[in-house]
Amino acid sequence: MLHLSTIADGIGIGRISLYFLALLFSPFCLKAQEAAVKPNISTAQNLYQQAQKEFAEFEKQHGGFVQTNNVNLHYLSWGKTSGIPLIWSHGSLTNGYELLKVADDLVKAGYYLIAIDYYGHGQTAIPAHPVSLYHIADDIKQLMEHLKIKKALIGGWSRGGGVSTAFYDAYPEKVLGLILEDGGSVAQNTHYHKMEAAKLEETIRMMMEHPIKDTVYASAFDAYYDLYDPEEGGTQFSALAWIRKLGEKQWGIYVGVMELFQMNSTQQWSDLILRSTKVSLFGASMSMLAPEIIYRNLKVPMLILDPVSDHDFMPFEKGNAALQAQHPEFIIHKVYENTGHNIHYEQPKRFVQDLTDFLKRVKAFH
Q: What angle do CA 317, 323, 325 make, to 5 degrees?
């Protein structure tokens, strides 16, 4: 059974107790689901019906699609077009709803917030042809053209930070500034390439002790009920963004995504870390991303949000500090002590404040 976790969540739809890997290349422990009891089936069905109504209304207000060269891309938007546009790419195994709980505060700060669903997440399908982070960057460019946005702040969390870095590499002239939340600022494999061979082999083996399997249900309600977090209560309508219809009588949660990531086997993990030209284009584009090279001639403000904890599985503080030292006039490096990977979920107030302050800096710069 698939559950939601505070680390993969960020949109308040429960605790996904899956082994959330998100191209972090390191095993870590997630909170077990709390002992709270789920509502009975009859109550849950009523909640589901209400959630469907709320989801449809929210999508009517905030949702949209744009047909790009790669896919029919779904996105959400909040705020007035007169605000400063921030185009946000989510982390692995979430979707555009991950900023739902901070969206209104960001709008108040002056942002026009746009959050995409990239391939296999939310309401955006996995294209039939090979794609990469740079294809997502192309999609964002076409989204900007669709929305008549000439320049925007580009940001993202985890893998979404990698998407943002790829976008800057491809279209620097369209970037007002960058917001990288624990991703995209340091080469992804840096930490693992420092390991001795035996240690790395053991790390990869541990990753596959709790593999993420494609989860398929006989009904959308079954998927919703599985995702439902009894501690949070309410309708949890945004959970519906995680559920995709696969066939006439099949619904799934992120089916095909781990294969897209090339994280379905020990061999794929090993190749991602050590032999990136052997994996798919999408996996290779993440593994081979080189921020230190891409940002060698950085010309816009950048905000790096860097969580640090005793069990930090992305220990990039030194790498982030080094990048900041190369571009002190452009980069702000904010360290979040005793904080897990998902900053915007664990510390939403500080996240909003840091983005508010950064927006002032961007306005002054331009």
A: 100
Cα–Cα distance between 195 and 209 in angstroms, integer?
20
Report CA-CA distances (Å) from 324 to 166, 203, 305, 353. Answer: 18, 30, 12, 20
Q: pLDDT (tens digit, 0 to 9) for every residue of the chain, 366 residues total?
A: 333 333 343 333 333 333 333 333 333 333 334 468 999 999 999 999 999 999 999 999 999 999 999 999 999 999 999 999 999 999 999 999 999 999 999 999 999 999 999 999 999 999 999 999 999 999 999 999 999 999 999 999 999 999 999 999 999 999 999 999 999 999 989 888 888 999 988 988 888 888 777 889 999 999 999 999 999 999 999 999 999 999 888 999 999 999 999 999 999 999 999 999 999 999 999 999 999 999 999 999 999 999 999 888 889 999 999 999 999 999 999 999 999 999 999 999 999 999 999 999 999 999
Q: Tell me yes or no: is domain 41-365 CATH 2.30.29.30.
A: no
Place of tokens 């099949």: 250
Domain edges within the chain: 41-365
**Angle value at C-alpha 23, between 181 and 209, nearest 5 degrees:** 135
